[in-house]
Structure formats: structure tokens, C-alpha cells
């Protein structure tokens, strides 16, 4: 049986690139996203291109009930999870003093709580088997405050802290945990900006990095990976 990777927010951007990278290596895939049409397109393309099995479930990972629904969907597959990628999240620019009321709560729900609850729901099988890998998609904003970062940076700082706690809790269960901290990557978050495409990193570079970390022997783990555009942050 193929190994299994679970990716939240798996139809676009970095999540999509990670799904495609692991599917190309023979992994079956479980993915969620809000848009059902995008999920069905992902399923069709990957199953035809790589001859793997793809399971999809629509879910808004900023909503706790949807997170629970996705966890139940994964558990009902009754398959061991080899890799979990907590990728779901989004970015709204703003300043703490002036951003819209509720911005912090919204981004904490999407960028932090989604990873927290998904991990709590799915990690028990990994602990029982003493095997697995968890990637948390953090950000340069997890280590560097910047203008207009606002609640996004707060949520990503917290996600890095969550990753550090997981690392300590799970290392004796032979479960590896890596925090990925990409800088500016060419995704929908940057649509409409007047910046040359070559100034950004590609989503494929992030996916290749994730797979490279996964490919290390079980004796080693890369705890944190910072990836920046060659010319620096934008």
C-alpha cells in the first residue's frame, strides 16, 4: 500500500505544490479546501497523472466544526498517516491599531487553531505506531515583525511556538516535526502587486524543500527551515 500524506489547504499555492510533489513520489493524498470544484479537479488530475489515490473533503479550516469534519473524514479512511502538512491559512495586511475588528480572531482560527485541532485529531495514530512526520507551514513572519504584518504575524509567531512544543512532545515517539518559514512566494496572496515574478520564490521550491526534509533518515530532523528569495525579503 502507498504511503499517505494529509495536506490542509491542498488545492492552491504551496499546498498544491506539496501535494503534487508527494503524489509524484507515489504517495496517496488526503486534501481539504473550501472549494469543492477545486478539490475534484485536484483529485482527477493527480489520479490520472500519478496513478495514486486521492481523497478530498471540503472544509473551511477557520471553522472548528469543519476541522472536526475533516478529521473524522481522515480517520474513517482507516489508514496510517505518514505525513501531515498543516498548510491552511491566509494573509490580510494591516496594523494592530487600525485593522478591522475581529481580524486577530479570524487569523488565529485559520492559521493557528486549524493546525492545533488537526494535529490533536490525527497524531494519536502516529504516536501508537511511533512513526510520522508533521510539517507546519509557518512564515518569515514567524520570526520577523514587519509593517502591515499585524494579526498575521501574531498568528504565525504562535504557529512557530506550537511547532516547537510539538517537537519536544513527539520526539520520543519517533515523530519528526518541522516548521517551514518561507519568505515571499508567488501565490494568490501577492496578486495585484507591481513586483516582478522573478523576485519571488516558486511554490515548487517550497515543495522540494519539504520533500527533502522528509527524505532524511529517521535519525535526523530539520527542526526549522527558513527560505528567502535570493535578493532578500520583499
UniProtKB/TrEMBL annotation:
EC number of this enzyme: 1.-.-.-
Pfam families: adh_short (PF00106)
Keyword terms: Oxidoreductase
Protein name, as recorded: SDR family oxidoreductase
Record-stated family: Belongs to the short-chain dehydrogenases/reductases (SDR) family.
GO MF terms held by the record: oxidoreductase activity
Cited InterPro entries: NAD(P)-bd_dom_sf, Sc_DH/Rdtase_CS, SDR_fam
SUPFAM superfamilies found in the cross-reference section: NAD(P)-binding Rossmann-fold domains (SSF51735)
Catalytic class of the enzyme: oxidoreductase
